[in-house]
Here is the input.
Amino acid sequence: MSPAVGGLAAKAKMLYEKLKEPFVGREEEARAILLALLTREHVVLIGEPGTAKSAMARRLAELINARFFKYLLTKYTEPSELFGPLDLRALKEGRYTRITRGKLPEAEIVFLDEVFNANSAILNALLSIMQERVWYDGYSEIRVPLWSLIGATNRVPEDPELEAVYDRFLFRQYARPLPENRWSELLDAGWRLEAGLVEPAKPVVTLDDIAEMNKAIFSVDISPVKPKLLRLFAILEERGIHLTDRRKTKTLKAVAANAFLEGRQRAEERDLIVLKYIAPRDIADFDKVSIVLSEELKMPERFIKELEDIRRNIQEAARHVDSMRSYDPRLIDMFRSLKIAKSRILNILRETDDERVQYLAKETLKSIDELLEKISYKLGM
Ligand SMILES: Nc1ncnc2c1ncn2[C@@H]1O[C@H](COP(=O)(O)OP(=O)(O)OP(=O)(O)O)[C@@H](O)[C@H]1O
Ligand SMILES: [Mg+2]
Here is the structure.
């Protein structure tokens, strides 16, 4: 990474850290929001009441220096509440325009709480605003500066009318209530929040910074992960999880954004984890997709676990070797197993450049070589 790009990536990471800071267990939500910003896409947080969806959007508004518009939708919300009232003076002159100051058509980042409560008129406007950044208002076609729309909802929409808007949220995150083992932290976080001990955040990035970041993600090398991504699409489809073509076309830039956020110029298999925000449609899909990804992706954690298992076996074997006599036939079996473990580790080294994995793999290789030498000696090789 060039220093300039590295600086941008560090800023993106800082925004992520700051966004999640006051919340317990909301890392995924923060990542989904960051990915949406980096890719100039939209994100929806789905979850039961009180899971910090609105609080996260409020915090984001503090952290970015941009024009924000926030609104809580009900089924009675009128277009004028979002898009501004009709300009009556202009109407007298025969022009149909709205006074949009401070409203959605002038906002760069928009938060719509309970977004699927929108009525047809609002939904229709949102379709083109989200897709083309164009607002068709009566007779005119107006470009809008919208960068990302963040939606919140208590439920996945079932109504076909809502489907098209739902599909325009490339990122979807299911904000679950925290599990019991985190309730104690939640109490502490709540105490700090309620006592006013959490300072309002100061802006750490501007929208210009985000636009620069967006440019930078397209210089990430995504070629290493393309074949695997295609395979994952096929596996997901087989398990009944269908991605629309829109979502498929946009997946690579999400992968690039994840690599960028991690400070890398080259995508790796683990960046395909972004599919967990892109692939699910229904609530049940979130778990299904996670299972597929944890089975299919070479995540550093998995390698570390595998290497630790191998190390334990080697230590065990080393103890036996010491007490075995020369030419013990079991030594030959051990020799073979160690050779197999060695080639597995060499494969792991080729598959990832994660530093922790590389270190553990090299240490393990050293122990294997020492043991192989000992066995060879006992076998008189
Ligand atoms: N994981 C959490 N960590 C810290 N605070 C939390 C967490 N979850 C909820 N809270 C606190 O609970 C309060 C309610 O959250 P918020 O209003 O954002 O919920 P919501 O998901 O928007 O709910 P609704 O769907 O009803 O709008 C906030 O003050 C928030 O700070
Ligand atoms: Mg809310």
